[in-house]
Amino acid sequence: MSTVEPGRKRTRATKTTPTRPRAKRTEGAKAKSTEGATGWSPRDLLVPYVLLAISAQKAHGYFIEQYLRSMGLAQVEMTRIYRTLRQLEQQGLVTSAWEAGPDGPARRVYTLTDAGKTWLRGGAAMLEGYRTAIDAFFGRYQPGTATKPGTATKKERGE
């Protein structure tokens, strides 16, 4: 009796052929496909917000979550925040240390490094560019009507 190895597809009783792996589209692939000329993807917008929270004070995960909520980012899950914090620490943008909590167990507290401060300044400049692009969009957008690409308003032409 023949057996079929995992990862192989049985086509006949006596012959096996390897299965072709299916191409998976990972989150990274999605992010790359939505990146603009800036090299940023919408997923990366969380990073400057997290760095801003940590720049305000040494911060633990729960403080960062509350800070993000106060900034209007209520949909961010804690797992995503902690994953981002680990990545920022690996990149040298933040450091962490365990500190005793006031009323409970120790918690990991994050501090911004000099590299993190530099990144935050660059991130703020990038967000300023996004704001300009968004303002331009809403300057042209009128619900129920479409603006043709390449047409500028009188204000934009300087008239």
Q: How many strand elements?
A: 5
Separation, N- and C-terminal Cα atoms: 84 Å
Poorly predicted ranges (pLDDT <50, ≥5 residues)?
1-38
Structural class: alpha+beta
Order of helices and strands: EEHHEHHEEHH
Average residue pLDDT: 77
Assembly category: single chain
| Proportion of residues in helical segments | 40-55%
The DSSP helix count reads 6
Backbone shape: elongated
Residues in β-strands, percent = 5-15%
User: What is the CATH C level class of the domain at 40-139, in words?
Assistant: Mainly Alpha
> What is the annotated CATH architecture of the domain at 40-139?
Orthogonal Bundle
Q: Describe the biggest sheet?
A: 3 strands, antiparallel
Radius of gyration using CA atoms only: 24 Å
Strand order of the largest sheet: 3-5-4
CATH topology of the domain at 40-139: Arc Repressor Mutant, subunit A
The H-level CATH homologous superfamily of the domain at 40-139, spelled out, is Winged helix-like DNA-binding domain superfamily/Winged helix DNA-binding domain
Explain the overall architecture.
By secondary structure, this protein is an alpha+beta fold. The chain has a domain at 40-139: Winged helix-like DNA-binding domain superfamily/Winged helix DNA-binding domain (Arc Repressor Mutant, subunit A, Orthogonal Bundle), CATH 1.10.10. The chain is built from six helices and five strands. The chain has helices at residues 27-34, 46-56, 61-70, 78-90, 114-140, 154-157, and strands at residues 8-10, 16-18, 59-60, 94-99, 107-112. The strands form two sheets. A three-stranded antiparallel β-sheet has the order 3-5-4. The radius of gyration is 24 Å and the shape is elongated. The model is unreliable at 1-38 (pLDDT under 50).
